[in-house]
Amino acid sequence: MKILITGGAGYIGSHTIIELSKIPGFEIISADNFINSTPETFSRIKKITGREIKNYPVDLTDFNAAKLIFSENPDLAGIIHFAALKAVGESVKNPVLYFRNNLNSLVNLLGLSSEKKINYFIFSSSCTVYGNIRNLPVSETTPLLKTESPYGFTKLAGERLIEDFCLSNPLFNAIVLRYFNPVGAHISGTIGELPINAPNNLVPIITQTAAGIQKKMFVHGTDYPTRDGTCIRDYVHVSDIAKAHVLALQHLIENNGNANFEIFNLGKGLGVSVLEVIAAFEKISGMKLNYEIGPRRAGDVDAIYSDSSKAEKILGWKPLAGLEEMMGSAWKWQKVLSGI
Ligand SMILES: NC(=O)c1ccc[n+]([C@@H]2O[C@H](COP(=O)([O-])OP(=O)(O)OC[C@H]3O[C@@H](n4cnc5c(N)ncnc54)[C@H](O)[C@@H]3O)[C@@H](O)[C@H]2O)c1
Fold first, then answer.
1. Is the full-model pTM beyond 0.85?
2. 95-110 pLDDT, tens per residue?
């Protein structure tokens, strides 16, 4: 069965290619224009899996370029759609860029899926769709509050678009996965998060600071209504997230004909503060991190963590890695990248 992974050179896409490659019977192609990644990721994937992945370096917002992938692969059966821009702060500064990139690419893929009769679709969503929620942990039935950023809105609108598409196409089967905070790197240290610009997520900021790429880092806000005043998030290992995609794809295939639109939270269910993440890093690395307290960042919610029992019950998903393993693998990857 041939599966298109969009954003296959990206952080979660590349880890998902590795996990899906372990399952017999799947052929994988990718579409990634390297707006936030590099082609080298595919050589790294080959080192781990022995597989050469064909990538189409197209911008998926370009309908004709996207269409070519479908024409050249008439046997395509499903799509795992990762490709999107994901920096909350950048989306606040440039909402049009985010709406255009994240929504036009999805519209194109859904249009082409309908034309080419592709029936399996997995969408990368985010816990950001819950907004600044007070009622924790959040489950899939928790009512959504206003999204705090244009990025969050693109995820919410994407979910809605897919839900409506499923209603009008009963043969189309989609799963929306709402990730909490994917961190860490492949156990081999061969691939991991590779921010092209200055990273916006906490863990690569920590590892880049420890590696000396950034002189110091800022903790954005210590006046949040949380136990130590810093933001609380639900960190989950990227390979655990990747495995959830394999399970979701198998669920879609096996359950063909049942509920054709489902949403799953993917988090560990533990709220961890920024200062606690820093402490875990300092423990595993034996280093003292150079950080300062800075102002809040636009678009950040106070605290969020997941009730992921639905994914456990229905998909059989259980995130295994703990915080120290997440930080250890992220640091191992950073050391490979920085030649330390
Ligand atoms: N990493 C996180 O913390 C996180 C959390 C929640 C949701 N998500 C979502 O998961 C998905 C994957 O995230 P990631 O962390 O792997 O990001 P990433 O930036 O590492 O990967 C995304 C990939 O998509 C590609 N891409 C973006 N726009 C494209 C376009 N128009 N055409 C072709 N390729 C394009 C980029 O080059 C990149 O390689 C995204 O949809 C993101 O919004 C990520």
1. yes
2. 999 999 999 999 999 9
